[in-house]
Design brief:
The protein is of the alpha+beta class and 370 residues long. It has two helices and 16 strands. It is elongated, with a radius of gyration of 31 Å.
Length: 370
C-alpha cells in the first residue's frame, strides 16, 4: 500500500493492521513447523530406543544360543548328563516377573583333554601327573595354563561321578615331554558350582587315576529383575546391582558379565525324549526332579529361549488408548509366567530361538579337538 508523504508524493509502506495480520500468519507458520518438528522428534526418539532394544535382545540371543549348542564340549561321554542345569521361575527376587535360569558346562572356548597318569593328595596338597607327551598334543605355551580353571574327572570305570574344579598355578615337565604335571593352588576353585552336583572329591584319590583333565567353563544365564539380587553385592565380581534392574547376565566361572539391559523376562523350555520311546516329547519347563539325575538331563536335545525386552522410557509418540487386546504396550504372558493386567506405554520386543545341543549327536565335539 502506498502512503501520501508530506511532500505530496506517495511512498510504499504497511499499515499497522497489515503488520499485525502478517505477523499472526508468520507466527502460525512457525508454531506449526515447531509442532511438526516436535512430533517428528518424538517418533525419532521412540524408534531409536526401540532399535537399541532390538539390538540388545538379538545380541543376547546370539550368546546364549551359541553356548547351548556347545554345552558339554570336552566332557567324556560318561559325564554328558552333567552339562545342563535349569531353574524354572526364580522367585527369589520377588515381584511379578519370575525369570528362568540356565547353567551350562563344557570347555567351550578352548579345547583340552589330558589323561591322568596318577593323582594323589588331599585338598591342601595335590600331585597330578599326566601321561607322557600330554602337553605336546596342544599348541599352548606353558604360561597359558596359569590361572586356568580345570575340571578333574575320575576314571569312568571307577563308578565315582564327582569332579574337582581347580585353578592351575603352573605346569612342569622335562624337556623331552616326560614327567608332565599340573600344579594347583591349595583348595578347590572358589564359588564354582558345576551343574548336576558334579563338584566334589571322590572317596578315593585312586578314582582319578586314568581320568581326564579338561578346561572348564561354567556359564549361567540369568536376569536381574530389580538390581538387588539376594546374596550379591554391587561392585563385586562384575555385579552392577545398585537398583539397576533389567540386566541380563552371563556368569562365567563365578564372575558376572552384564550382557544386555532393558530385558524384562527370560524363559527356557526343554525338548527331549524323556520317556525313552524314541520320539521327542515337546517343549516343557525344567523339572526340579531332573537335578542330580544325569540320565534325564542327557535326554535334553533342544532348548528354546524366550527373551522379552522393554524400552527404558514410555513411548512419546503414542496418543490415546491402544486398541484392546494389542499388548505391544503391556507385558505379555511368556511361557508359564503371566502377563500384566494393564498398559504402561512401554514398547516390547520378544525374540524366540531354539538351539540343538549338538554334542548329543556329534561325538567329535566331546574329544577336546577342534
Amino acid at each position: 500500500m502506498r502512503h501520501l508523504h508530506k511532500s505530496g508524493s506517495f511512498r510504499p509502506g504497511f499499515t499497522l493492521m497489515e503488520l499485525l495480520v502478517s505477523s499472526t500468519i508468520m507466527l502460525v507458520v512457525i508454531i506449526s513447523a515447531m509442532h511438526l518438528y516436535m512430533e517428528s522428534n518424538k517418533i525419532t526418539v521412540d524408534q531409536q530406543q526401540y532399535a537399541d532394544l532390538q539390538h540388545n535382545i538379538r545380541s543376547s540371543m546370539f550368546f546364549v544360543s551359541r553356548d547351548i549348542r556347545s554345552a558339554g564340549v570336552g566332557l567324556p561321554e560318561e559325564f554328558m548328563g552333567y552339562f545342563l542345569e535349569g531353574q524354572d521361575n526364580d522367585s527369589s527376587q520377588g515381584g511379578a516377573v519370575t525369570p528362568d535360569r540356565l547353567k551350562i558346562m563344557g570347555n567351550i572356548e578352548d579345547p583340552l583333554n589330558l589323561s591322568i597318569d596318577s593323582y594323589s593328595g588331599d585338598v591342601v596338597a595335590i600331585t597330578l601327573s599326566l601321561e607322557d607327551f600330554s602337553f605336546e598334543q596342544y599348541h599352548y605355551l606353558d604360561e597359558y595354563y596359569n590361572n586356568k580353571y580345570v575340571m578333574v574327572l575320575p576314571n569312568p570305570d571307577s563308578g565315582c561321578r564327582m569332579g574337582e574344579v581347580r585353578v592351575i598355578t603352573s605346569v612342569s615337565h622335562d624337556a623331552g615331554g616326560t614327567n608332565e604335571r599340573l600344579n594347583f593352588s591349595p583348595g578347590l576353585a572358589p564359588d564354582m558350582n558345576p551343574p548336576g552336583g558334579l563338584s566334589g572329591p571322590c572317596p578315593e584319590s585312586d578314582d582319578y587315576d586314568g581320568g581326564t583333565v579338561t578346561f572348564i567353563e561354567v556359564k549361567e544365564y540369568w536376569l536381574d529383575v530389580d538390581g538387588s539380587y539376594p546374596g550379591l553385592t554391587a561392585g563385586d565380581n562384575g555385579y552392577i546391582g545398585g537398583g539397576e534392574g533389567g540386566i541380563f547376565y552371563m556368569t562365567q566361572n563365578a564372575f558376572h558379565y552384564p550382557i544386555a539391559q532393558n530385558v524384562e523376562n527370560l524363559q527356557f523350555e526343554y525338548n527331549g525324549d524323556f520317556d525313552n520311546d524314541g520320539f521327542l516329547d515337546g517343549y516343557q519347563q525344567w523339572n526340579s526332579a531332573w537335578n542330580g539325575d544325569p540320565l534325564m538331563v542327557s535326554c535334553v536335545h533342544q532348548v528354546r529361549v524366550l527373551m522379552l525386552g522393554r524400552t527404558p522410557d514410555p513411548s512419546l509418540s503414542v496418543s490415546g488408548t491402544p486398541p484392546t487386546g494389542l499388548f505391544v504396550y503391556r507385558r505379555p504372558a511368556l511361557s508359564n509366567t503371566p502377563g500384566a493386567g494393564s498398559d504402561d506405554m512401554h514398547r516390547r520386543f520378544m525374540l524366540e530361538s531354539s538351539a540343538n545341543v549338538r554334542n548329543l549327536s556329534l561325538y567329535i565335539y566331546n574329544t577336546g579337538v577342534r
